[in-house]
Specification:
alpha+beta, about 100 residues, two-stranded antiparallel sheet
């Protein structure tokens, strides 16, 4: 859960339970560094104005769920696809 690491102080200092609007009011300007840009907590949570968080973990998970595709590093990429029986498999490439 690397993306929300920049917001850890926000989770630790905020009083839960809370609404998304209350969380944004107190911490909306905190910037998250994303693989393809950046977004503030306010930007991310604006799509969930009526969301209610019982715990810090609820808030973290809501933020991850609300992040857009700018949070995806290499879209559609997976180095964990299993090779099936009878297939040659993927050619390994060193990055």
């Amino acid at each position: 859960m690397r993306i929300v690491r920049d917001a850890e102080d926000s989770f630790a200092t905020h009083t839960f339970p809370s609404t998304a609007a209350e969380f944004v009011e107190d911490h909306g300007d905190v910037e998250l560094k994303l693989p393809n840009g950046a977004a503030t907590l306010g930007d991310v949570l604006e799509t969930l104005p009526n969301e209610h968080f019982e715990t810090e973990e609820d808030a973290r998970l809501a933020i991850y769920g609300a992040l857009g595709e700018e949070a995806i590093g290499r879209k559609g990429y997976s180095d964990r696809d299993a090779t099936h029986l009878g297939e040659t498999g993927h050619e390994r490439v060193s990055l």
